[in-house]
Write a structure and sequence with these properties.
The chain is of the alpha/beta class. The chain has 4 domains: 18-53; 57-113, OB fold (Dihydrolipoamide Acetyltransferase, E2P) (Beta Barrel), CATH 2.40.50.140; 119-300, P-loop containing nucleotide triphosphate hydrolases (Rossmann fold, 3-Layer(aba) Sandwich); 306-383, Helicase, Ruva Protein, domain 3 (Orthogonal Bundle), CATH 1.10.8. Helix content is 52%, strand content 18%. The protein contains 14 helices and 13 strands. The chain has helices spanning 2-53, 87-92, 114-121, 139-154, 156-162, 180-190, 200-205, 211-224, 248-265, 287-290, 306-316, 327-333, 339-355, 363-384, and strands spanning 57-66, 69-74, 80-84, 97-101, 107-113, 122-126, 169-173, 194-199, 228-233, 273-279, 297-300, 322-323, 361-362. The protein has a 6-stranded mixed β-sheet with strand order 6-8-9-10-7-11, with helices on both faces. Strand 2 (69-74) and strand 3 (80-84) form a beta hairpin. Helix 4 (139-154) packs parallel to helix 6 (180-190) and helix 11 (306-316) crosses helix 12. The structure holds adenosine-5'-triphosphate. Adenosine-5'-triphosphate (ATP) binds at residues 135-138, 176-182, 233, 278, 280, 304, 312, 315, 339-340, 343.
């Protein structure tokens, strides 16, 4: 009996030993597996980092679909797709967020907000500080612009009552530096509208491949910030007949122009976004831009006549202390001079007086300034011809 108890004791000890050995070998297996897994994790980390370092596409979130899915549109080719995003990123995304996407179309990180890119290319001023008092001459032209741009924003009921559709787009044309941008800003000020300016040549030369997208964003921003005035400067860079020469660059410009026309066609003339454009080369514009329902009112902004030149000189010298200056004499000396050049004459005359540490600006300073600015203009012309 005693022996059988002892035997049983020996058996259980043996069983425990075997179990221990078994567990130890399992631990060993697990250790080996753990090492394998660690190696695999390290490898995946390396691959992941590698993936992150590969060139990434930029896409914009169009919509958040819930359950971790987002609807993206890739910039450049406008391809649209739906992809799954991890929880951390998902919480930070909203429509309009720019994201970096890898080859497998997974979102890798957030790049920024779409608004940043728009601000990069567009000048945006909420109710600019320029008023009509800052503009010399151009009374008739200003009134025409006000009727076409400002009153539809400030007095839309009159147009409705009379049953007249205001023009959809207004084109200002004339030599550079004659006050086209100035008028657009003053009108925006008067209408308490946001002034959004985009340069056609920047769109074409600086943002290659992004033109059409930026035009879309320009109009989206204008709607968001309404009442607003969209001002497209140097529109000839986008809408010139000469750019249509069949090269790939011209195809891109053509796409930008198409987008612009599509945006204009989709616009309500009575809405609170008004569209203006400016050019120095109206003769080169694509006729498609000038069709009814697009830039259907063209207003010429000419070189200032003598009375306007005097006004402009007065505006730009109003803060100066003038000593017996005969502005009429300066007006005579400045035939065929733009507003921007007259501004330069005033600035230059002021600088001459400062250099002499004089008490004010004299006639001689002004006459010397005219000669200097004229010489610079001739030099500029030589460089560009
Ligand atoms: P661009 O075609 O080169 O864009 P623009 O016609 O739009 O030229 P503005 O930018 O309006 O010219 O004018 C440039 C500067 O010249 C203005 O900031 C302003 O100081 C001055 N200027 C031009 N015209 C006038 C004007 N009629 N009255 C007062 N200042 C003027």
């Amino acid at each position: 009996m005693e022996e059988s108890i002892l035997n049983t004791g020996g058996d259980s000890e043996l069983a425990s030993k075997l179990k221990l050995q078994d567990l130890e070998s399992q631990i060993l297996d697990l250790k080996v597996k753990n090492e394998e897994m660690s190696r695999e994790v390290a490898q995946l980390r390396r691959e992941n980092n590698q993936l992150k370092r590969m060139p990434l596409f930029v896409a914009v979130v169009v919509d958040i679909l819930g359950s971790g899915e987002v609807y993206l549109r890739q910039q450049g080719n406008n391809q649209e797709y739906i992809t799954h995003v991890n929880d951390d990123l998902f919480k930070q995304l909203k429509p309009g967020t720019k994201v970096a996407v890898n080859n497998a179309l997974s979102v890798v990180r957030i790049v920024g907000n779409i608004f940043d890119s728009r601000v990069r290319v567009m000048e945006l001023e909420e109710s600019p500080a320029v008023t009509f008092e800052h503009i010399g001459g151009l009374e008739k032209e200003i009134e025409e612009v006000r009727e076409a741009v400002e009153y539809p924003l400030t007095k839309p009921h009159i147009y409705e009552r009379v049953g007249v559709e205001p023009p959809k787009g207004i084109l200002l044309f004339g030599p550079p530096g004659t006050g086209k941008t100035l008028i657009a800003k003053a009108v925006a000020h008067e209408a308490r509208a946001t002034f959004i300016r985009m340069s056609g040549s920047e769109l074409v030369h600086k943002y290659i491949g992004e033109g059409a997208q930026l035009v879309r964003e320009l109009f989206a921003l204008a709607r968001e910030k309404s009442p607003s005035i969209v001002f497209i400067d140097e529109i000839d860079a986008v809408g010139s007949t000469r750019t249509n020469d069949g090269t790939s660059g011209s195809a891109e410009v053509q796409r930008t122009l198409m987008q612009l026309l599509a945006e204009m066609d989709g616009f309500d003339t009575r809405g609170d976004v008004r569209i203006m454009a400016a050019t120095n080369r109206v003769d080169m514009l694509d006729p498609a831009l000038l069709r009814p329902g697009r830039f259907d009112r063209a207003i010429e902004i000419p070189l200032p006549d003598p009375a306007a030149r005097k006004e402009i000189l007065k505006i730009h010298s109003r803060k100066m202390h003038l000593e017996d200056v005969d502005l009429d004499r300066i007006v005579e000396m400045t035939e065929n001079t733009t507003g921007a050049e007259l501004q330069a004459v005033c600035r230059e005359a002021g600088m001459m007086a400062v250099r002499k540490e004089a008490t004010g600006v004299s006639q001689d300073d002004f006459e010397k300034a005219v000669r200097k600015v004229k010489a610079e203009v001739i030099l500029d012309l030589r460089m560009y011809t």
